[in-house]
Amino acid sequence: MQNKIGGFLAVAVIGFLSWYLFIKPHDYAVSFKTKALPGIVKQSLLLWTTQQDSIQILEEKEDYIVENVFSGGDSIHQYRWEIKPINDSLTNVTAYVSDIKHSFINKITIPFQKTVFEETTTNTVIDFRDNLKNHLSQWKVRIEGASELEGTYCAYTTVNTIQIGKAKGMMINFPLLNSILAQNNIALNGSPFIEVTSWNKLTGALSFDFCYPILKTDNLPSHPDLKYKEFKPRKAIKATYNGNYSTSDRAWYALLNYAKKEKIEVVELPVEIFFNQPVSGGYELNWKAEIYMPLKN
Fold this sequence. Notes:
31% helix; 6 helices; elongated; 2 domains
């Protein structure tokens, strides 16, 4: 009997070591929890990654998995970030990390001593965690509930970009809209807004119309990049956003979360109305936008 138990234990130990050393896909993992929705965490991670000189995005897999590579010295560290909701207000973030060139030696040494790889990995995750915490303090979203978007006539340009490039797309097109309309003495008939026409939540690919409300006349200026349309009224759920307009998409996730909790069917093509001029500067938490998620008919 003892020989059987000993044999079983030996097989189990050999099996575990074989898995740990040769099959386990990562060398080390670091986790933290945050009071933010998974979509907000993912977009914040993508934005943080673009701000790091030595980190590149490899791939976005599934809704809340991001893979990237950190290069430093003779090491190449591959990160797999998994972002999982715990409940409506809490999300778990785990970075599974491997050193592509030194994976085997890391797996041997990590259980017995503190390694440079372990310290570097921990510091990288802490840097993102602190960056995320700071980011969450720079904007506010308040859910208003059921609402209705008024119809209007507008001049617009179409922008194709990604979520983290939304504000840049607006800035590039602002001079075109502003100058052409001003040169032809066409006054705004409301606040500028964007109407999202396509949103891929997995890749962040985004298309939207950047619109200036105007009065419809027979003598509107012609330009190859300028178009006109009727924006039709529609029912929606609404949120008020305060903060830099580059991250107003954080309210999209808040509205989708609200719709899910309240069992409201929505069209995931938000509309944002802006009430401040970013070029004027000022305290960003005083900037205001109204964010709408249209209801399904």
